[in-house]
Write a structure and sequence with these properties.
Radius of gyration of chain A: 20 Å
Oligomer: homodimer
Shape of chain A: elongated
Number of strands of chain A: 11
Distance between the termini of chain A: 48 Å
Number of domains of chain A: 2
CATH superfamily of the largest domain in chain A: SPOUT methyltransferase, trefoil knot domain
Number of helices of chain A: 8
Largest sheet of chain A: 7 strands, parallel
CATH class of the largest domain in chain A: Alpha Beta
CATH architecture of the largest domain in chain A: 3-Layer(aba) Sandwich
């Protein structure tokens, strides 16, 4: 099995991470020279990875991707088991669980935000989630290589397992809930559960949640895009963490 | 001139706003019945707008759009002049200015966040911005009908004009700047300037800024998507506003 990784950021981050096995990297002869392309070439040489300058036409079979003249054939993302993740030491750790995110752009953008916010892992259910493919990797700007991704069969069982290890469950929910900034995110390990764009977090998960939080709006418009909502909440936890360290 | 608006949310919000003239609405006979489709039909009847149920094939010329079986032919978005906007009364008002956002998905998503956050207007330069088209309208989930959009020839002149009327200029910039949560957003009219995904806010605008702010990251990864960065900053101003009203 081989994945296609395309675009400068995604290829560079996959290279840097050291988590992927590269088969080869194809670079269009007509690509604009740039610092990132040079960094990719230098890293490939250093790691003994085959790279080829090739005529633009030879990349045409990848034209369904917005590849910016660079395509890499790479081993798939490695997932980590929940038990292996829990076996690490955790203090004020944070997990984001996605409950039914089906849009690849959103998923990629969420992963990027999670890495910037120092989130420790992302839990994704096997079903009702878009596949982790090239689109997701590109939309994450390669961030997907820098965070533990845990795939689970049953989100419910995962939450029950986490609760047993004293993780707190926080679910984002539009109604009857606390404002997200009234929760103290410090001094606990927590799982923030974000629901699908339309359906929200499923009822069975809401029942298990220790906190239900909402983002208060100043205008009564349907709702935020899920990746923006996640960014607002998770960076509130970053704000609180940085303020507590002053 | 006529715009195509497609998808349930975008068509419904364009209808609700009352700001657009509808030529007609085409609904695929095979569309799944839903509350939103019913609302669209009821509103069309109420406003005397022509709607047609049509065979799926007749919508095929719109298949480049992800139209979910509904397409409307509508007058373009109306822009507002900066002077007309400034003539209104402003107290603790907020403008978002976009400096070179070229991705339609990002632009749509930013507009949606701005509406949820109660932002008063969005300023978009004529050049170096993607056109306000169907993709943007769809990505905004129709939010674009619920906020003043100001197109300007020169962002610099617009900023100088705003400064004359005592608006404060806040530019998002990754380096050498204050943390975004250390600014007091209350008690002033402000313009938040967000830069392009790669280039950031242009130097000439940074020179005019009263505050330069950054989002501190917990992991040194390249950066946030611009729409997520905007969401984090603008909802910090919402948080401060709501806390000050307690």
């Amino acid at each position: 099995m081989e994945d296609i990784v395309y675009g400068r950021n995604a290829v560079l981050e996959a290279l840097k991470s050291g988590n992927r096995t590269f088969n080869k990297i194809l670079i269009s002869k007509s690509v604009h020279p740039s610092e990132k392309i040079n960094e990719i070439i230098d890293l490939s040489k250093e790691k003994g990875i085959l790279f080829q300058f090739t005529a633009k036409e030879n990349l045409s079979k990848y034209d369904e991707y917005n590849h910016q003249g660079i395509v890499a054939l790479v081993s798939p993302i490695k997932f980590i088991e929940l038990e292996d993740f829990l076996a690490k030491e955790h203090q004020n750790s944070r997990i984001v669980m996605l409950d039914g995110i089906e849009d690849g752009q959103n998923l990629g953008s969420i992963i990027r935000t999670c890495v910037c916010a120092g989130v420790d892992a992302i839990i994704i259910p096997e079903r009702r989630t878009c596949p982790i493919n090239s689109t997701v990797e590109k939309a994450s700007a390669g961030a997907i290589n820098h965070i533990d991704i845990i795939k689970v069969n049953s989100p419910i069982s995962a939450i029950q397992r986490l609760k047993k290890s004293d993780w707190w469950i926080i679910a984002a929910e539009a109604f009857e809930s606390d404002n997200y900034y009234d929760v103290n995110y410090n001094d606990m390990n927590f799982v923030l559960v974000m629901g699908a764009e339309h359906a929200g977090v499923s009822k069975s998960i809401l029942k298990l949640a220790d906190f239900k939080i909402k983002i208060p709006m100043l205008k009564n418009f349907n709702s935020l895009n899920v990746s923006n909502a996640l960014s607002i909440i998770i960076f509130e936890s970053v704000r609180q963490k940085l303020l507590s360290e002053r």
